[in-house]
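Forwarding the complex inputs:
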Amino acid sequence: MIQAEHLCKNFASVTALADISFSVSEGELFGFIGPDGAGKTTLFRLLATLMRPDSGAATLSGYDVVKDYKQLRLITGYMPGRFSLYHDLTVEENLRFHAAVFGATVEENYELIKDIYSHIEPFKKRLAGRLSGGMKQKLALSCALIHAPTVLLLDEPTTGVDAVSRMEFWQMLKNLQSHGITILVSTPYMDEAGLCDRVALLQDGQILSIDSPARIVARFDKKLWAVQSDDKHMLIERLRSYRPIESVFAFGDSVHITTVNDELDETELVHFLTAQTEEIHITTIKPNIEDCFLRLMRKN
Amino acid sequence: MQQIPVILVRHLVKKFGTFVANDDLTFDVFKGEVFGFLGANGAGKTTAMRILCGLSRPTSGELRVDGLDVHKQAEAIKKRIGYMSQKFSLYKDLTVYENMRLFGGIYGLSLHDLKSRIDQLLGQLDLRKQRDTLIADLPLGWQQKLAFSVAILHHPSIVFLDEPTAGVDPFTRRQFWELIYKAAYEGITVFVTTHYMDEAEYCDRVSIMSEGKIVALDKPAALKKHYGVGSMNEVFLRIARSEEEADSR
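Prediction (whole assembly, two chains):
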């Protein structure tokens, strides 16, 4: 459905995308996971035909992003990272405007947006600029969908959105996927990777890894331990000074560590640490996507 | 930890017209604590934070920040606190050194103090070589760490951080939190908002706001135990759901 080959894009001396290649199957929910500055927005703008690549090529449903941009736009729904609807139009006016631009009507495609739009329909006479963050997000998604596109390009739809609204939003995406829509979504939140069929981990304009979340985790090539103690500041400092240690990263209420030779004498480590801190718990654990991302960043 | 309240809030109410943004908030934040201030979008976090920083006046309630009365001594409070927001932190078209001088000057440091403090910070952050580099030319992660250091340049009692790590890569995010731990270890109280629920676990205590009220306030471990769940993310979802159910009744 989506094919990208060797996409490159530079802005003056900054390389935004350095040789990006990937393919997405029809009906897939595909995630680009990476921090600010990784190149997510540039990539989405290239795919949405708002910008041309310096080199390389990409097609959506067979349409080339440079040559066939007019046809391509008809089948694509794009939700930019920044809220880009008209602040001085009402909710309903924004929706009707987007439908009209694509030669569609709200009525003919209402079924597709019903789940999402029904949350904000009670406020349809309100100016879009006066909506809360979560409602703006739902309106932007409704507008991106109103011409019944076959591909959705969603650039950081959940950034700055609270944990509950984020979960609701992903549920909506799953529902849209069941309508057969191919969805490309980007996010800086590593924990959202698990909600995608496949993900590409993006850093400094390069893909670090591309696969299903389960397979990325399975490829983690080190043993991993979680260490818990009350005083995290001292715990981290002490762990760093323990010779066999390779990496030390805080993760929620524990600290994840790897060792140089994949071995750990737990009794010895507890002894080493208890000089400073009180109670220590050490357990072996399975990595998550963020562990993998940190490991891949280190290798790069 | 010594239980000295650095922030004391009793029955804080803030109304905008008929809308109640903060509805009777009462809580303390202790010296050297990392206090997580969580809540859904629109729950009233920013409003409360602006009041504590002396940027907005409460409608009613008793509030003390570092012993000073928010009603009468708002200007004095501004000198005792540091503030870092997600959107605006440093001037991108000034150099590292120029930003430090500017903010140090605004916070009222003498030129002599400022020089030694800047030298100390540049050393700590390993930024001596970048002293005359424009902020715009620094990697994003460095900008964030520098912004935090500038916010505590004047050794404030409390530093307020409004979503300081949004969009930051996982490696830099952890380095950033290590700076927070270090500041807390040195006695600076840290008041932080975030949408990363794993970061909520890093806090000594967290409060969770919903519709203008504080609906939970405790140590992360105690909250997880109370709700019988394994992570702060689940705590957050539980609370949000029970609020929704209460709403629909």
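Strands of chain B lie at 5-16, 19-30, 34-39, 60-65, 68-69, 81-85, 158-162, 189-193, 205-210, 213-218.
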